[in-house]
Amino acid sequence: xxxxxxxxxxxxxxxxxxxxxxxxxxxxxxxxxxxxxxxxxxxxxxxxxxxxxxxxxxxxxxxxxxxxxxxxxxxxxxxxxxxxxxxxxxxxxxxxxxxxxxxxxxxxxxxxxxxxxxxxxxxxxxxxxxxxxxxxxxxxxxxxxxxxxxxxxxxxxxxxxxxxxxxxxxxxxxxxxxxxxxxxxxxxxxxxxxxxxxxxxxxxxxxxxxxxxxxxxxxxxxxxxxxxxxxxxxxxxxxxxxxxxxxxxxxxxxxxxxxxxxxxxxxxxxxxxxxxxxxxxxxxxxxxxxxxxxxxxxxxxxxxxxxxxxxxxxxxxxxxxxxxxxxxxxxxxxxxxxxxxxxxxxxxxxxxxxxxxxxxxxxxxxxxxxxxxxxxxxxxxxxxxxxxxxxxxxxxxxxxxxxxxxxxxxxxxxxxxx
Length: 418
Ligand code: ASP
Known about the structure:
Blueprint: H1 3-27, H2 34-74, H3 77-109, H4 131-136, H5 143-148, H6 152-167, H7 170-196, H8 198-212, H9 222-247, H10 252-269, H11 272-287, H12 291-304, H13 307-323, H14 329-346, H15 353-364, H16 372-404, H17 410-414
The structure holds aspartic acid (ASP).
């Protein structure tokens, strides 16, 4: 199917799921009504869950095969090292800008001033991983265990090692590479097959979510909610456009147009990981980033780069400090910039994890972790928006790295219909 037609159908699926779900929510059907029981929590919930499951199904094989091909094509360990360094620096840089924007706007807007703490629900903090553990966990001990448990950083390291070894293994390596290249094509076909049913999957996800999720939760938290939304938009339209326009010399509008299906996937699944197959396919085949770059930068980004999450954490920290009337001072804010940037590395690309790693940021600056209870009500809605920003950030950095490495195909980027 024509890609533009598919994009339209995905957007229609999203919009109609959203409208219908919101209508059902307004009707406030009882939990045991036939529509809720058999359609919303029955048929559509099953449809949505199967759709997410099939996206996740492709993540590990896709990352492994694609990255082995990419790393073996780059040839040697030193190119891989240069690429890795550049990518990580850019990811940290964009996340640093995101969190700084969040802090500045939140300090000006003061979303937490005048919040009544008495009425809020309680929150039991889940333990967030320590920084030490995050670093140790990057290195695999058993590649199969890493794959079955979906430990993406470990899978990435293993795939790079295999790829580099293939490039050093002469004839044996070439045979294996040809075999994996065939597999890569087959897995990409699987991604395309899945994308063909995406309008229905996205419809199911949006419908079930918005039937249960109303806007009344925003209530008292409107100031917090809209501050996060504003900074997400600012980073999305401001930082990303500037980077694309001035560093990459590319038209940001064309970039956003091509990325729009990926954003819808991220929005409706709230998971950078589940979106990864579509991000990778789009970054390679619609934006023009070559496989040897995209196969590394996209999975890495989905795992460690979370600009949207950092924005939520920045605004949330200011909000909680104001709600509890605790001034964390300039050093506190600088600590937030550092910790939130690192916390985004430890935040897995799955729904709601940003809230767990927020505990790590709050603890660093001595704010009460229970403060998370204040914002939990609107987090589901914000999670959708921030995940869309997270994956867009991955694609922006992938494009910048590809251009700097001379592995970018501009004709693909400028092609109008594909
Ligand atoms: N849902 C986000 C993602 O997958 C992570 C988070 O902020 O909770 O990118």
